[in-house]
């Protein structure tokens, strides 16, 4: 497995923004280290979000893509920030972004304000809503500079190379790091060294293409990059009959601390958090979205994980 991963990285087209990514991850960690040095150790969530594309040609005209909108990762990022985590948000370019409140479509902020405002009379409610929301928007820039780092990918090659940089950088964060793999990562790809340079021609009619399996990086993360980090992966299926079986299998296979099982049709209303000891069914119920109970559940699991170390 490690050899396959190594040959993936060796043959991948070099990440154009590599130096910028490394520098911004280091700056972000410096702030974390400075806070830790004065006893304010904050947890860091690495949230991956959106789908990776698989290019079919080097001078790329066509790609294989997938359905992921990035809304799970975006909403979860809001909840991690609200739970006082610092967040590295590794997201697909142009996928859903958090704080959609700015566009009049809030999840967390709106829910919070509505709840707060419900305690006041109607006239006060409007004033309070407007003031608090503009205050929030004013402050968010400053808050985000220290607590949030956004990194963008489009292709599978970019995604895995950035993940390697971030993964390895998280080693010193130990159990305070949580990897939350909500991105839909391609299972198959065209290796760079066997990829056509130019646009694939259609003159010969039908076409057959051989795709290689994408090496699994979760094992590398657990073994080498950040062995102490709390790791949560997601398992999506369309066949409910195999969903839990597959989730349990990836829990053991990759040494995850939790696997979130979700089915395509119901994923916005129901998920099952599979851990070694318990399986928890979470439903949206009266919450603004399913990510609220999900993030709360995982934050609590990481707290238990941190306590185990102290015991
Ligand atoms: O991005 P989105 O909100 O549309 O969907 C989220 C999701 C279904 C991609 C995510 O919950 C997930 O299951 N990711 C892992 C998919 C997989 O590779 O099995």
Automatic annotation (TrEMBL):
Span of domain DNA/pantothenate metabolism flavoprotein C-terminal: 164-285
Name listed for the protein in its UniProt record: DNA/pantothenate metabolism flavoprotein C-terminal domain-containing protein
InterPro entries cross-referenced by the UniProt entry: CoaB-like_sf, DNA/pantothenate-metab_flavo_C
GO molecular function, one term: phosphopantothenate--cysteine ligase activity
Family listed: Belongs to the PPC synthetase family.
Pfam families: DFP
Organism this protein belongs to: Selaginella moellendorffii
GO cellular component: cytoplasm; nucleus
Recorded superkingdom: Eukaryota
Membrane-crossing segments per the record: none
GO-annotated biological processes: coenzyme A biosynthetic process
């Amino acid at each position: 497995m490690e050899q396959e991963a190594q040959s993936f990285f060796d043959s991948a087209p070099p990440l154009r923004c590599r130096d910028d990514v490394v520098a911004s991850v280091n700056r972000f960690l410096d702030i974390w280290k400075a806070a830790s040095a004065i006893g304010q150790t904050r947890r860091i969530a690495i949230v991956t979000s959106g789908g990776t594309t698989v290019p079919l040609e080097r001078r790329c005209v066509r790609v294989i893509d997938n359905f992921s909108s990035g809304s799970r990762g975006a909403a979860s990022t809001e909840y991690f920030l609200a739970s006082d985590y610092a967040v590295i948000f590794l997201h697909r370019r142009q996928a859903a972004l958090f704080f959609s409140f700015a566009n009049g479509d809030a999840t967390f902020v709106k829910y919070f304000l509505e709840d707060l405002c419900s305690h006041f009379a109607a006239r006060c409610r409007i004033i309070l809503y407007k003031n608090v929301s503009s205050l929030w928007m004013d402050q968010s820039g400053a808050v985000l500079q220290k607590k949030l780092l956004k990194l963008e990918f489009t292709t599978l090659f970019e995604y895995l190379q950035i993940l390697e940089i971030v993964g390895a950088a998280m080693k010193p964060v130990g159990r305070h790091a949580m990897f939350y793999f909500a991105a839909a990562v391609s299972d198959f790809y065209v290796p760079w060294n066997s990829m056509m340079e130019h646009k694939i021609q259609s003159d010969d009619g039908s076409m057959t293409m051989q795709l290689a399996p994408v090496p699994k990086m979760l094992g590398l993360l657990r073994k080498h990059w950040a062995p102490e980090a709390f790791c949560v992966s997601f398992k999506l299926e369309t066949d409910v009959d195999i969903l839990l079986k597959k989730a349990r299998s990836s829990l053991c296979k990759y040494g995850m601390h939790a696997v979130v099982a979700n089915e395509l049709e119901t994923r916005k209303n129901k998920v099952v958090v599979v851990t070694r000891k318990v399986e928890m069914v979470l439903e949206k119920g009266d919450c603004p979205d399913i990510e609220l109970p999900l993030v709360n559940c995982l934050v609590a699991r990481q707290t238990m994980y941190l306590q185990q170390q102290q015991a």
